[in-house]
Every structure is written in C-alpha cells, then in structure tokens.
Amino acid sequence: MDKILGDHRKQIGNFEIIDWVDEGELARLRDKLDVDAPVSLHWTWEYGSEVEELRNLYEKGKHGQWNAAQDVDWSQPVSKDDWVLNPEASMLANLTKMMGRDEATQKAAAFDELAFTVSQLLHGEQAALQLCGQLTNVCDKLDQKFYAASQVADEARHVEVFARFLSEKMGTIYPIGGTLKILLEMLLQAEGMAKKTLGMQTLFEGMAVGIMDLMRQECRNPLFSDILARVQGDESRHAAFGVLTMRRVVAEASPEEMAEMEDWSYNILEALNANQQMDMLKIFGPKYGIDPAMVTQMVTSLPNFAELNSMIYTHTVVPNLRNLGLITERTEQHWRDKGMIADRKPGEQKFQLNLA
Ligand SMILES: [Fe+2]
Ligand SMILES: [Fe+2]
Question: Of 44, 52, 212, 288, which one has the greatest count of Cβ atoms within 10 A?
C-alpha cells in the first residue's frame, strides 16, 4: 500500500511531514460535506443473545449513561488567564517562553493550542458518531447492533459536550485538519465491520484515549477534568468492543489478511504522525511569531523526540495492536523509525515537552 497522502509530503530535516501547502485545496476538502459511504445492511432474525460479552457491554453502556446538559456543572469557569493544562504540556507555551514572551502570552498561546486540539477531538467524535451508525447496519449479530446503538448515543453526547465546551468556554471551534479529514473518511468508506472497527475503535479511539488521558494528568481546570473523565469512562467501553471484536476477526484471518491489517493500521497512524502539529503551528505561527517548519525541524530532531512523540501511541493503541498480533517483527521497526514506539522506563509517563 502506498503512503497515504504521498503527494502532500515534504522533508523537514530528517522527518517527512504531510503539509497542506495549497490553502484552496484544503478549503475545498473541508467544504465537501457529502461523502459516498455505502454500507451493506444486514438483517438478523436471531433476537436472542448470542454473544454474551457484547450483551454485557451493552448493559454496561446503559448504566454508564450521563447527561451532558445536566450532569456537568457548566457554571465552572475556564479562563485564558489561567493555565488549563500544566504549562509543560503545551508546545506553544514552551516556545513562547523560550522566546522570552511574558506569562500572559504563554498562557494565551497554550489556550489557543488547547482549543485547536479539542476541536480536532470534536471532529473525531463526529466521525465516531457516524461510523457507529454504520455499524448498526453492517454488524450481523443483534448483540453487536445493540452495542453499536449504545455507542451512537455515547458519541452524540461527546460531540455535544466538546462542542459546548469549545463554543461556551473557549470561544472558538477550529476547522478540521486536512489529514484528519482524509483519514476519517477512509474509515467511514472502508468496507465491512472488521476494517471499520479496527480503524475507529482500535486506532482512532486508542489514540484519542491516549491524548485525553495525558491531558487529564496535566489538567488544572475542574470543568475540563470532569468532562475528560466522563468521556474516557465511555471510551473504555468502546475500546473493549474494539478488542473483543478484533480478537474474533484476527482468530479467523489468513496470514495475508493479517499482513493487510498490519500495514493498514501502520499506514493510517503513520499519516497521522506525519502531521506533527503542522496545522496548528500554521494557524498560530503568525500570531506568536513562530515559523512552523523551523519548529517542526527542532522538535523532530530533539534527542528524546521518540520518547515524547510515542506517548500517545504507546498509551493504548500500540499495546492493543500488539495483543491482537498486528504489530509484528516484520513491522515493528517501521514504528520505531518514525518515533511511534520508544522504550520507556516503567512509571515514566509524563506528557511534557521541554524544548529548553
Ligand atoms: Fe467518543
Ligand atoms: Fe468512542
């Protein structure tokens, strides 16, 4: 399989990134709202439970429901004048500090960066909502359909809660990154339950859980902490569905099918990794006097780049792929070469980007 977005790649130092140079192309991509995503619909006449573990997950989902409008205390403030996350966790806060800018500017930069990151999570939640709707069609067992339906409600709530947090508390929803849109559409257009589940529940949700958990560890704001904890509680059920379903898929897969899933997983996450915050840096670069290419070169050539960069992967998605046998001797080195797997001492899981 060719590299995803091969013609959008360019070399910055030793690192190959995906860069959307043509703003017009990016705008057209975002404007394209209708996407052909035919799904095969499967009826079932088996109305009893056939897959006990999925029925249990559906039951857990019913108990785990919460109301984003009523259960979250929206009166709690979020301010640009406070650190929402610890300053060390923000690339822009580190950069502006290094440049000798005052603390108010560092806080404003961190706030902008967070609003951008949460916006991307929000767009991902919308994709999850649409994909789970598809799963209610393509899955063949009733327990799977029930479970997928419960996840649809969860994802609707996540869209609701992040959209409200951004618009009411942070003031802006930033547009989706070009690479993210392309990758999410690949999942929405992928055929069959196996690829959709591998793509969304294992790869994207695994990544999102990594990002959310690391943000929660660094979070100083009670409202944002509460939202992250609630969303993560739901996401753990979603990840469980991914693992349970993929275990069955993997058990029945031929060596060729395994190799295809290994490469597909790697290629999708490699493309996501090749983005390296370039979208975010391009939006805020002019405001804070930052050159995106220079920053990318600096970050990707840090001696501990792999250690820092791999955290969101090694948190959940890489261990899950390993358990499923989808990272093998054949492919592991590729992950390492891109800084997506690095060895870390036990307990050393601190999300800190120290550029100084
Ligand atoms: Fe979600
Ligand atoms: Fe989810």
Answer: 212
User: C-alpha 56: how far from its chain's center?
Assistant: 26
Contact 246, 198 (CB under 8 A): yes
pTM above 0.70, yes or no: yes
286 exposure class (CB count in 10 Å sphere: 0-12, 13-18, 19+): exposed
pLDDT in tens, 136-160: 999 999 999 999 999 999 999 999 9
Which stretches within the chain are classed as H helix?
23-31, 52-63, 91-98, 103-138, 142-164, 178-189, 192-196, 205-217, 222-252, 255-273, 278-288, 292-300, 305-309, 311-315, 317-323, 329-337
Residue 121 has pLDDT above 90, yes or no: yes
- Measured in Å, residue 35 CA sits from the centre of ligand 2 at 21
User: Ligand 2 mean position to 30 CA, how many Å?
Assistant: 23
Angstrom distance (rounded) from CA 17 to CA 12: 7
Angle at 136 between CA 133 and CA 142, to 5 degrees: 160
CA atoms of 280 and 90, how far apart (whole Å): 12
- The values of phi and psi at residue 149, to 5°, are -65, -40
Q: Determine what percent of the chain is predicted with pLDDT higher than 90.
A: 93
* Residue 329 Cα to ligand 1 middle (Å): 32
Any idea which residue has 């349970």 for tokens?
244
- Segment 219-229, tens digit of pLDDT: 999 999 999 99
Q: What is the mean pLDDT of the chain?
A: 94
Give residue 235 CA to ligand 2 midpoint distance, Å: 5
CA atoms within 13 A on the CB side of 187: 30
The whole-angstrom separation of Cα 56 and Cα 73 is 30
Residue 66: pLDDT over 50: yes
